[in-house]
Amino acid sequence: MKNETKYLKLLKEYDELKDKIMEIDDRFHDGMYYDLMGYYEEEYEYLPELESQVKACRSLLKGLKALNYIFC
User: Fold this and answer.
1) Burial classification of residue 67, based on how many CB atoms lie within 10 Å of its CB (0-12 exposed, 13-18 middle, 19 or more buried)
2) How confident is residue 1, by pLDDT bands cut at 50, 70 and 90?
3) How far apart are the C-alpha atoms of 48 and 68, rounded to whole Å?
4) How many CA atoms lie within 13 A of 6 on its CB side?
5) Could you give the CA distance from residue 40 to residue 51 in angstroms, rounded to a whole number?
6) Backbone angles phi, psi at 71, to 5 degrees
7) Which of 42, 55, 62, 67 lies at 20 to 30 Å from 20 by C-alpha?
8) Which residues contact 60 (CB under 8 A, 6 or more apart)?
9) CA 13, CA 31: separation in Å to the nearest integer?
């Protein structure tokens, strides 16, 4: 039950991160959308991979927010 709760919490966060990232740069849409749908369809055995993916998306969002083009 603990893994199930954690998995669902991470799925929700991944979905929220996807939306925030899409507001900045939509080129990640297909990959993130299909990846997220795959996690929704699978069981909790992919918890470690989902944790890593959410961590990477947190970093990606942080980096995209910090990106400041001067000469574009």
Assistant:
1) exposed
2) low
3) 33
4) 12
5) 14
6) -110, 35
7) 42
8) 17, 21, 28
9) 16
Counting residues of the chain whose pLDDT is more than 90, the rounded percentage is: 83
- Give per-residue pLDDT as tens, 3-29: 889 999 999 999 999 999 999 999 999
Q: Please give the structure tokens belonging to residue 1.
A: 């039950």
Cα separation, 62 vs 24, whole angstroms? 11
Q: Cα Rg for the chain, rounded, in angstroms?
A: 14
Residue where the block lists tokens 């939306």: 19
